[in-house]
């Protein structure tokens, strides 16, 4: 069970707002995170991953407390076993595609990296710098790297925005397979709500 309680002031172009989330989500869920633009969905991901400390927060993953502001408990990002895919991909320009994907692994396994390269049609680019790839190719690398971490919680911020329909289906099927086989909990922000309605097991609407 994942317990999340967050209250955090955010500053937007339309004024100050409070991001408020109070949810209990079963492990292995596929969570579609919805809400208007600028409402705080990306900030929510940053709080979950440990990149932002909220004004008030309590996050518990099974018996492990990741955050408890009332008792001054804060697990740093590297100890949360949460992987986050940013909208800007955050790839390392000084590494090859293969090195970028492998970097995410705590326990190195080249077979898994090679498998992800094949599944996302990146094998021919494995020794290429990400800066020489198209936006869609970079997005595939970023998703492959996120999955390579094999984290308990996976946070994806608009993971398919730059790829074509055919590759979108490939990537989506891979996410669903990973979710099923690893019991990882997925949180996905996407404006393509219809794409996720048929298989999401939980909808978290931020208002």
TrEMBL record:
InterPro entries: AAA+_ATPase (IPR003593), ABC_SmlMolc_Importer (IPR050093), ABC_transporter-like_ATP-bd (IPR003439), ABC_transporter-like_CS (IPR017871), P-loop_NTPase (IPR027417). SUPFAM superfamilies: P-loop containing nucleoside triphosphate hydrolases (SSF52540). PROSITE patterns: ABC_TRANSPORTER_1, ABC_TRANSPORTER_2. Residues 2-207 form the ABC transporter domain. SMART domains: AAA (SM00382). Keywords: ATP-binding, Nucleotide-binding, Transport. GO terms for molecular function: ATP binding; ATP hydrolysis activity. It comes from the Bacteria. This is Molybdate transport system ATP-binding protein. It comes from Epilithonimonas bovis DSM 19482.
């Amino acid at each position: 069970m994942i317990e999340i309680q967050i209250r955090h002031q955010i500053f937007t172009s339309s004024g100050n707002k409070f991001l408020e989330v109070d949810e209990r989500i079963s492990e292995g869920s596929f969570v579609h995170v919805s809400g208007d633009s600028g409402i705080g969905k990306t900030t929510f991901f940053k709080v979950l991953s440990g990149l932002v400390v909220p004004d008030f927060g309590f996050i518990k993953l099974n018996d492990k407390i990741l955050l408890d502001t009332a008792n001054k408990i804060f697990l740093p990002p590297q100890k949360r076993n949460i992987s986050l895919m940013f909208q800007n991909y955050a790839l390392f320009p000084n590494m090859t595609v293969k090195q970028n994907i492998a970097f995410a692994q705590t326990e190195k396994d080249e077979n898994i990296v090679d498998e992800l390269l094949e599944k996302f049609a990146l094998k021919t680019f494995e020794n290429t710098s990400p800066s020489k790839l198209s936006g869609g190719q970079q997005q595939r690398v970023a998703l492959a790297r996120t999955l390579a971490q094999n984290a308990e919680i996976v946070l994806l911020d608009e993971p398919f925005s730059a790829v074509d329909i055919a590759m979108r289906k490939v990537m989506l099927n891979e996410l669903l397979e990973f979710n099923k086989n690893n019991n990882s909990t997925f949180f996905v922000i996407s404006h393509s709500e219809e794409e996720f309605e048929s298989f999401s097991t939980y909808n978290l609407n931020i208002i």
